[in-house]
Write a structure and sequence with these properties.
Blueprint (H helix, E strand, L loop, with lengths): L10 E7 L2 H14 L3 E9 L2 E8 L1 H17 L5 E5 L4 H6 L4 H7 L11 E8 L1 H14 L3 E9 L2 E8 L1 H18 L1 E8 L4 H6 L60 H4 L7 H10 L14 H18 L1
Antiparallel strand pairs: 1-3, 1-4, 2-3, 5-7, 5-8, 6-7
Helix pairs in contact: 1-2, 5-6
């Protein structure tokens, strides 16, 4: 939830007085006494400043009560108001919530965040300038801004350590009384984040984000030169002389036919050999073989046992 949206359905507390240092000190006490959120300050002119806080109804009641007591310590007039639940139309029109927060804006992370705050208010601009110069020369503080609220009231704001700010404010009071009229002063040892965000700050102290420029061409880094070792001159390599070998003389080889091959071999065609084999009967088959019919053979076999019985 951002700073502008966290004020919905919260109570409203207002504390007003006629001094900017007094209202800043009052807002600091209100923040430290209860769990309220400081929205900002509304200045209507004539020196009137109003601290606007939001939160739970019980926290707002306690904060407004403490704020009224703080203003009374300054001996100034105070006016207060508590609204348990403002209407959305009220938030949309009046600077009492997100509208006031948007007007104030955010300074981001301030470089003076952890430093004490010193405020010195004078009636008249010359007295404020003289007091600011004396404060800067008397101790190690930084002038962060100045603020006007009307009715001739001007406030110089310095930041630094607690000891330096206290010393600077004391010297500034003396110088302001010498030059003009001193109206009020305030020293805050440690400002809370909400209070720090609402304090005025000069434009020279606001750090704006700058676009990062990427170079189109990247410059190459020159590498250091390295000395090479001394090179040894190469000597020619002497190869051994080649020995020429004489090839043997070519001799004609005479092929002499073998004794078995000297005789002429008679080659008989295969067909004639097959015919000779088919038509030359074997010696055992030259005799005529009498082939009896099968029927006569069977009769002979059947009559054979009868003859054997007769013989018995």
């Amino acid at each position: 939830m951002n700073r502008q949206d966290r004020y919905t359905d919260t109570a409203l507390g207002l504390v007003s007085t006629q001094s900017f240092p007094a209202i800043v000190g009052t807002a600091d006490m209100m923040l430290k006494s209860s769990g309220v959120t400081l929205v900002g300050y509304e200045m209507i002119g004539g020196g009137y400043c109003t601290a606007v806080v939001r939160g739970g109804i019980s926290d707002v009641r306690l904060a407004v009560e403490v704020g009224a007591e703080t203003v009374a310590q300054f001996g100034m007039k105070v006016s207060t108001a508590i609204i348990p639940r403002p209407m959305p139309n009220l938030d949309a029109v009046l600077p009492i919530g997100s509208k006031l927060a948007a007007m104030i804006g955010s300074h981001g992370t301030s470089q003076f965040r952890d430093l004490a705050v010193g405020l010195l208010e004078t009636r008249g601009f010359p007295a404020m300038v003289a007091a600011a110069d004396a404060m800067l020369k008397s101790s190690d503080v930084t002038l962060t801004a100045y603020h006007t609220i009307g009715d001739g009231l001007c406030t110089a704001i310095v930041r630094g350590t607690v000891a330096n700010v206290a010393m600077a404010v004391e010297v500034g009071m003396q110088e302001a009384e010498r030059v003009g009229e001193l109206h009020s002063v305030m020293v805050i040892p440690r400002a809370l984040d909400d209070l720090d965000q609402t304090l005025p700050i000069a434009s020279c102290w606001i750090e704006e984000l700058q676009p990062l420029q990427i170079p189109i061409t990247v410059k190459e880094v020159e590498k250091p030169l390295v000395a090479l070792p001394e090179l040894v001159e190469l000597q020619p390599l002497e190869l051994p002389a080649q020995i020429e070998r004489a090839l043997p003389e070519a001799r004609a080889i005479e092929f002499e036919p073998m004794e078995a091959e000297k005789e002429a071999i008679e080659v008989v065609p295969i067909v004639e050999q097959q015919r000779a084999i088919e038509f030359e009967p074997m010696e055992a088959e030259k005799e005529a073989i009498e082939v009896k019919p099968i029927v006569e053979q069977q009769k002979a076999i059947e009559s054979a046992p009868e003859q054997s019985e007769e013989d018995e």
